[in-house]
Fold Inositol monophosphatase family protein.
Amino acid sequence: MENEIIQWIYQAAEKIKAALNDELVIDEKNGRTDLVTNVDKETQDFLVDKIRTYDPDAHILGEENGQDQTDISNGRVFVIDPIDGTMNFVLQKENFCIMIAVFEEGIGQLGFIYDVMRDDLFWGGPKLGKVFHNRKELPKPANTKLADGLIGMGVSLVTGENKFHTKEIGREAMGVRILGCAGLDFIAILKGTQNGYISRLSPWDYAAGIVMMQQFDMAFSGFQDQPLSFNGREFFKGGTQAVMSEITEYDI
Ligand code: 2AM
Ligand code: CA
């Protein structure tokens, strides 16, 4: 299955790169900072079409085109974010990802995060027992503490009120990084160039990332340590085991 998914991702990326030269059709979803383009929708349709041909019984949980309400716990579910970091896609034409995860009966089996413009694919999970960076197996990052690394934060946590102790957590860390693309934060955690990430995310933003973090025995949860709901946007925290126990001390 993983070889097929990798081919679909590379094909979708070629279409996205070709579309960068065309005029985008940009719509607002929930206000002027929450965008969707024709390329997001077309890419999801392309991936859904491939999945349906490959496995007609599979369910799809995807950000676009009204497929965002699927139950994660029933059967095989493909979780798709066709373009993660749409704002970066529109304004930077880089720093965006394609993400796919495969869950079976609610258990994450495979995750794929593709940094399109850097041609960098991170993939793997419990089904393979490994995580790969392109063709090479990725080593598990060290269990570093907040004070020893960089923490990623979602845009809304930084521009909104200091509800989640982001200032205290940021001061304890060596620094804060705001990439505007959840997939890039997960890539950084898997590579060990960031050791934590806090944000407000939807299931397709975190599905692929947590499947690979799980393979590395890294930790993630909702705000007060509850499991992620896979139902709507919610607070997300994740990182090394050490960072997670430190962040948890800041919980209300
Ligand atoms: P997106 O581009 O796929 O929507 C930017 O802060 C990060 O948060 C991106 O990964 C972005 O994913 C995600 N994001 C932005 N707005 C969001 C929203 N309304 N709900 C969930 N995730 C969002
Ligand atoms: Ca998206």
Observations:
- The pocket of adenosine-2'-monophosphate (ligand 1) is lined by residues 30, 34, 63, 81, 84-86, 154-155, 180-182, 201-202, 205, 233 (CB under 6 Å).
